[in-house]
Amino acid sequence: MRHPLTLAIFALLASAPVLAAQQYEILPGTRVRVVAPGRFPVRVEGHLIEPYSGDAGTLVIATSGGSVRVPSTSVAQLELYQGRSRGRGALRGFLIGAPLGIAFALATKNDRNQGASSSSDSISVSTYAAGGVVVFGGIGALIGGAIGVERWIPVAGPSRVSVVPLRRGVRAGLVYSLR
User: Which band of pLDDT confidence, cut at 50, 70 and 90, is reported for residue 37?
Assistant: First the structure.
């Protein structure tokens, strides 16, 4: 094996048609999100009206403003809705609530200790901030867990293999992508 790079290039070129032949079908009623920069300035979200298989077809999406037809050639990104994640929502809620708890604790710390008769009765700043993190972070986690976070998974487009000339002579590089 004197030329491992040559063998790797041939292996990738040989696998491209096989990977491109792996097809999928998205059934009607599936909630999708589409980015088509040439057709729409913003992301389009809705439910499929007709089945879509990823080949040279058209996505027909029912949106709140009516139905939209998007040619598959103009689709830059296609994502499928996978429900809501309660765990990620709780984490997001905690990450929002915890800094608010620290800010609240630091803002009200001096007011809390004014009535203390001695320094042993006063609460340290770190203890008070930790209490704020627990209380506000816990409230945020409960709210975030109840609301949840939407989960979207991208659908891989067709694979592409390109041979790209490099600088200095007749060398060539290989670009392989699964859009």
Answer: confident
